[in-house]
Amino acid sequence: MLSIENLSVEFGGFTLLDNISFVLNRNERVALTGKNGAGKSTLLKIMAGLQKPTKGNVSVPKDATIGYLPQQMKLNDSRTVFEEASLAFDHLKKMERDLEYLHNQLAERTDYESEAYHKIIERATDLQELLQMSGIHNFEAEIEKTLLGLGFKRADFNRPTGEFSGGWRMRIELAKILLQAPDVLLLDEPTNHLDIESIQWLENFLSTHANAVMLVSHDRAFLDAVTNRTIEILLGDIHDYKVNYSRYVELRKERREQQIRAFENQQKQIKDTEEFIERFRYKPTKSNQVQSRIKQLEKIERIEIDEVDNSRLNLKFPPSPRSGSYPVIMEDISKSYGDHLVFKNVTLTIERGEKIAFVGKNGEGKSTLVKCIMNEIDFEGNLTHGHNVKIGYFAQNQAQMLNEERTVFETIDDVAVGDIRTKIRDILGAFMFGGEASDKKVKVLSGGERSRLAMIRLLLEPVNLLILDEPTNHLDLASKDVLKKAIREFDGTAIIVSHDRDFLDGLVNKVYEFGGGRVTEHIGGIYDYLSKKKLESLQQLELSVSTTQSSDLSEKAEQNTETSNKLSYLIQKEQNRKQRKLEREIEEVEDNIENLETEISTLEAELATPEGAADTEKLQKYLETKKQLEGFMSKWEKLTLELENFIR
């Protein structure tokens, strides 16, 4: 599908990529990994044709299409979400307009025997077949399915894109790229702004629908679920294994251990040979053996050990001052924006030393509740901070708020006070900004480097309550592991808003789920919570009724078990009735489609004769029947999608 040949990238005397080569084949889903600043995003841009390498080539087949999702993009704010996603099918709409024009030509012209007339028929037939194969008649259903999978609600479809945050706008662009179904998908951090449910949907989509994929992600669970090959950029070179990331890490470790053992054995052999040569060099009786050993030494192919990038993030939160036993106590916290209810009656107590996670779909109130804890917004209810609580806050957009014209050193020097100013160089070195790196301007830093720089602010003052809103976005896998270890060893309390399952695994002991205006407590780790959610889904506990109805039924169930069982029975009965109705409607539409297809086949056979080609009434009937069929196909797609969502 795509070939990289002897590609190198240099910046001001520094070699980022050094003579690398590889081939991306069909059905391969490749994880492109490496430390922040290793050159991952640069390589994707070169593959997408947006940047030129210093030397080397990127070869792409003539008809191959490439879809590229950058970390940041700009959308036109003049369209709605649905209209923007529909741009994926612009080429099909043009084909449809061309076909309509050809049909009009056939209806108007009378030169039925001419070569020009027959060429129009051939062109129209070819376009018709292409459109049938492309799925033009169900593109609206495809758009709907993709937008819903990425977390949008139907009510969002007609909203202008300008009303959405950067994370949601990224989803719109991702939907557009996926709908185009390119031959090669290049995705740079696609999970950064997705919630857990949307990530799982994307995992399934890439595993079952994509052709060839290369993606950059620092979500280990996502990489393991999607990819079947790993390419790591390390010190300008690449290491390429046809396994997923976790297996690659194991194989790389085993390979290096084998290299070390082989290297040590070879060094011992070389040393013994050199000692023999030195000992008997001047003894005539041993001259033949000495010459033989010299030749043997010259022929030895020296074993090299894979280089390792030993630059490592050294992160340890300073000792926290002791807080009260309960850093945060909430009673009946509610928050609305106008008529929109974010959540209501949130009551929870966070104990000192707890590590908890806030999870749920985007827009359900995770960051809003964090702002309530920070006293940044008004709310209803009582929220109390415990004795001596000192909060350290890492906002989701913290890295984007940095002044791009300041250097790394100036960025920290601007906020450092007191004795800490004498230790700025040491702190920057611990975060891999040692030496000349501290003089880089923020605008040239990668996303991960900016996140590390923003994280330094948390170290400038001891805190005992860490609130981290999506702290792993843009951090490479090694840095994430270091951050996870530092939070685990942190002797204070931590609230972590994150969609990264691997990061939360083994870190948190309690999960608060946001959804439908409620905040629900789940005791246990992130995979305990996900297992429970999957079980609930299988038991159809999440019925397709409104959130308010579900909440009311839940409250009544607590008051009266017998009434709850009766209501559950009635709802299930209503569910079954609606499902049977949808199935009957689909069956009727399928019968109509079958009859129309038979009729069209008959008309096509008649129109293929000279007499039929001259029959304008028959041609008109053919066009009308085709249009009728398109309508039924569209209706069938909508009903089928509705039934799928209903059953799910």
From TrEMBL:
Domain ABC transporter: 2-260, 328-541
Coiled coil feature spans: 572-606
GO molecular function: ATP binding; ATP hydrolysis activity; DNA binding
Keyword Methyltransferase recorded: no
Keywords: ATP-binding, Coiled coil, Nucleotide-binding, Repeat
Domain of life of the source: Bacteria
SUPFAM superfamilies the UniProt entry points to: P-loop containing nucleoside triphosphate hydrolases
InterPro entries the UniProt entry points to: AAA+_ATPase (IPR003593), ABC_tran_C (IPR032524), ABC_tran_Xtn (IPR032781), ABC_transporter-like_ATP-bd (IPR003439), ABC_transporter-like_CS (IPR017871), ABCF_ATPase (IPR051309), P-loop_NTPase (IPR027417), Val-tRNA_synth_C_sf (IPR037118)
Similarity comment: family membership: Belongs to the ABC transporter superfamily. ABCF family. YbiT subfamily.
Protein name: Probable ATP-binding protein YbiT
Species: Fermentimonas caenicola
